[in-house]
Sequence to fold (701 residues):
Amino acid sequence: MPTAAASPASAPPSAPARREKSMPQKAMEKMGLERDIDLALHLPLRYEDETRLTPLREARHGQTVQVEGVVVDSQISLRPRRQLVVVLDDGTDTVNLRFFSFYPSHQKTLAAGQRVRVRGELRGGFLGREMVHPTFKAVTEDTPLAASLTPVYPASANLPQAYLRKAVASGLARARLDEILPAELLPDGLPSLQQALHFLHHPPPSTSVLTLEDRSHPAWQRLKFEELLAQQLSQLQAQRERALLRAPALPLAQGGLHEQLLAALPFRLTDAQRRVVEEIALDLQRPQPMHRLLQGDVGSGKTVVAAMAAAVAMGAGWQCALMAPTEILAEQHFRKLVGWLQPLGIEVAWLTGSQKGKARKEMLARVASGEAQLVVGTHAVIQEQVEFHRLALAVIDEQHRFGVAQRLALRSKMQAEARRIEDEGGPLEPHLLMMSATPIPRTLAMTYYADLEVSTIDELPPGRTPIVTKVFSDAKREAVVERIRDEVAQGRQVYWVCPLIEESEKLDLQNATATHEQLSEALAGHMVGLLHGRMPAAEKAAVMSLFSGGQMAVLVATTVIEVGVDVPNASLMVIEHAERFGLSQLHQLRGRVGRGAVASVCVLLYTSPLSDTGKSRLKAMAETNDGFEIARRDLEIRGPGEFMGARQSGAPLLRFANLEEDIALVRQARHAAGLMLDRHPEAAAAHVARWLGGKAEYLKA
Ligand code: ADP
Ligand code: MG
Fold:
C-alpha cells in the first residue's frame, strides 16, 4: 500500500487520558518510550531528504530522490499483474510510478493532470525509468519543501512511522533538557544536549548525511558521551558504595585449612591457579568485601580455586556458600567438595529446590547453627528461608547463567547476612567470588564491569590433548554413530547433545527421546542414558551418577549438561542441530570433553540451510578452542547488546555508543565520571536518573 501522506492519518499521540491505550501507545511502551525524555532520546536510524527536488534528468538509477511533476497518464494495467501505472512529467523527463496495491482515493490523487510530489528509488525499468511504490502527496506549485531532513525512527509493526514522528516531536518539545553536565567536564567542541537533540531529530538541509549516519557528527558525540557518562557514573558509584562497606577480614593461618587442602589434593595447582588463589586470598584479608570475577576457560580448574578460597574463610572460623546454576552441577560440586574437605573435618550442607519437608528442614538447621561450614546448592541457597551462620564468602559458579532477578536476590541476601553478622562497627558484608568460563572482552570489562576485579586463569592443567572439532552435515549421522561404536568399544564415553526436549512441532528438531531410542538400538550391549531438564531431580542424579561412574557409555542429553559437568573419561561429544546453539553455549558444551589425557573429538552436526551467522559460529568453533578468542568472535557476530543479553536482560545497554569505535569517548567518560562524583555529586545523580531512570540498579548487581 502507498505510504506516508496518502495513507489514512493515525490518531495524534495526545489522546485523552483514561481511555484504553491504543495499539501504538502500547507498542511505544514496549519499546520503553514512556517519559518525554525517552522520546527525546529516541533517535533516528536514518533520514529522508524531502528538503529538495531533484530534476528527473539529473537523477541516477539506484538513487532515492524526491521529484515533483504533473501526472500525464494514469492507468490500471492487468499484465503481468494488476497494477496502477502512473506517468509523471517534471518538465525535464518522465518516470513511471507503479503501485501493486492501491485504493480509489489513491487513484484520485494520481489522476491525469494532478500535481504530485513523490519520493522513492529510481530504477531502470523494462519500459523506461520507474519507481515502485513511491510515497506521494498532492501539492500545488507553492507547497513548501520540508525545512529539515525527515527522521526515520526505529519503529515496530504496531507503531507507524508517522505516529512515532509526532510523538517524538512533542516529547522533544516537552522534555526538560537543561544542561546537567558541568562545562568543564565536557570534551571540547560538543554542542549542548538541547542543541544536539534538536539537531539530530531535525537536521538542517545542509547537513552531511554521512556524518549523521556514521555517528561522527559532534551532536552524536555529545549523545554518546552523555550515555557513556551515565553508565560510568553508575558503575563508579557502586564501586564507591562498596568501598564504604565492611567485611570480615580473613587472615591466613600458617598450617591452616587451605594449606591442608593443598597438601591433600591429588594434583598440583598450575601456576595460574596459584596466582589467582593468591589474588583472592589478598582480597579476603582486607576488611572490605571482595567483588571479584574469576574467569578461566572451560576445564581450566576453577572449582579447586573456589575450594581454596572457601578453605581460607572456613579456616578462619567462618561459613561459606557456593551456588551453581543447575542442580546437576551443584550436586557435582557437592561431591567433589565433600571428597576434598570432609577428610579435613569440614561439614558440607546441600540445598536445592527439589529438597522437601524434613530433609530440607534438617539442612536449613545445619546451616543456621553453623554445624555445616560449607553450603553448596542451586539458587535455593539465596532463598529467604535460608539463614546463614557467620557467612563470610559466597561463590557463584557460572555467574553469567544467573538472571537479573537472581542477582538482585543475591545482593539482598548478602545485605541481610551483613546485618546478621554485624559487630560494633556495623554490618559486615560477605565477600563475593564469581566464576565464569565466558571471559569478558576488554572493552566490556571497562564499561559494564568497571566495578569488578578480575582474575584470570590463562592456562589449562597439564596433560590435556586439545579437542579436535569437526563440522558435518546431518547426512553424516550414520558415520557418526559408527564412530561412537568405536569409541565405546575402547571403554570411552560419549555425550550426544540435542537442543530441545519439548519438541515444538513447528521446529522440526530431533528430540532427545527419539535420539535416545535410535542410539540404544544401534549400540545394543552398551548402556545409553537420557538426561533432560524435565526429569525429576532424583532421576537426573541417578543417570548422572551412572555416567560419571563409567557404567553408562553414552549419555543423550539436552543442554542441562552445558555447564560444569566433569567426566574426564568422556572423549567424544556430538552436538546435534549445532546451528541452533549460541557460540558460547557451543564452547561450554564442548568443554565437557577433553578433560582427561585422551584425545577428544567434538562433532557438530548441522542441518542445511545454514544462515550466515550460523556458518560463522560453526567456523569459529572449528578454528579455535580458545575461550577468549571465542568470546571475541561472539561479540563480533552478535554485538555487545546481545552478547550481554542473557546476563543483563532487563538492563539498559548502550544504544548510541559503540564500544569498539568509541573507545576514546569511553576513556573520557570514565575520567569525567570520577571528577563529577567528587565535585558535582548532585549533578551526577541527576544525570544518572535522566539516562537510566530506575534501571541503574540493574547495572550494579
Ligand atoms: P572449570 O574451570 O571448567 O570449572 P573444573 O574445576 O571442573 O574446571 O576442573 C576441570 C578438571 O580438571 C577437574 O577434573 C579438576 O579436578 C581437574 N583439575 C583442576 N586443576 C587441576 C590441576 N592443577 N591439575 C590437574 N587437574 C586439575
Ligand atoms: Mg566449572
Summary: The first helix runs from residue 23 to 30. The longest strand covers residues 64-77.
